[in-house]
Structures
1.
Amino acid sequence: FFLIRPQMKRAKEQKEFSNSTNVGDMIVTTAGIHGKIVKIDDGTLSLEVDRNTILKMDKSAVSMEMTAALRKKMEAATKA
């Protein structure tokens, strides 16, 4: 029970995070790809990684931890 509960909680938080992403959000995927969400369909999203370069991927590929680190880094850069 002590091993399964934290893992289930983390999976639930990850799912909620991937469902709460919106068009225009800057994200990082589990593969380390940085980009901006340009379109969200049922279970997929379109990620703009460069001008005229759009990747279509599953919502579950969005990394909660890496995206939080990216946002923290961007906030620190704007304050400086």
Note: Strands lie at 26-28, 34-40, 44-50, 53-58.
2.
Amino acid sequence: GEIVGFVGMNGAGKTTTLKMLSGILKPTKGKVMVNGYIPFEKKDEYLKQITMVMGNKSQLWWDIPAIESLELLKEIYKVPDCDFKDRVEKYADMLQVKEFLNLPVRQMSLGQRMKCDLIAALIHDPSILFLDEPTLGLDVISRHDLWKVIELLKEKTTIILTTHYMEEAEVLSDRIGIMNKGKLIELGTSKELIKKAKTKNFEDAFIKIIERDNNENTNIC
């Protein structure tokens, strides 16, 4: 798999792009196709291939233990018992959350909840994982923990993520797309983008690329 990161200012269209790719939103113009499917048609065959995790929203039920939410998702996705058991065990081990699965979600820290949300997202073995600001609000240690897991998941899943953290985009992404005002203005490795912007680091490259785009698109009256 590959990790593609989208970075941009607030309102650049990162989350909207993920929502169109996952079929939550219908594009107002243009076409979106993923693995030969039009996402907004929400065909079962497509929905079984994808999953979405949003840093600011959980798909786990707040007042019940995480494991019970996972069992409900197992029924929704018709995951066989043995696959379910194997996946929960494997990901709970990988994410080091075994002892938290029986806790009601409201009693978890944000980092623990995000890890359980990842297990929930992977329960049906999707081939594409959309991550919208997955480390939003996490402390430095929890963020780095999650980075390690995301890198491991890349082995079997294509990951498309959005982030406001330039370091996160650089550490995790094989390719980074820079978005500005609803458009993808650059796409490449961090090294390619640094070289193109002629800067010393990725954060400076990002700023320079955004400023250049803004200047080029300023209408002179």
Note: The beta strands are 3-8, 50-54, 128-132, 158-162, 175-180, 183-188.
3.
Amino acid sequence: MDVIECTHPGFFSSMCVRCGKKVDPDTLPKEQQSALTISGGVVLQLSVKEAEQVQASKVESLKKMRKLALVLDLDHTLL
């Protein structure tokens, strides 16, 4: 039986969201380091690949529901 090593797609307080292993995200290769950090008391970090997959999934969901996403910048610039 082949063992597949976890790619650590994201971290919740330094713990991998897939395998549960405690990992220092700064020691990972560049392609696995976080591209998106969400804070709210605790930190959730996603790798570039995982962030792209989440975004693609959300866009596809919005298209299926025939809805648009409105994005406002910090200075209220409409994007």
Note: The chain has a mean pLDDT of 77.
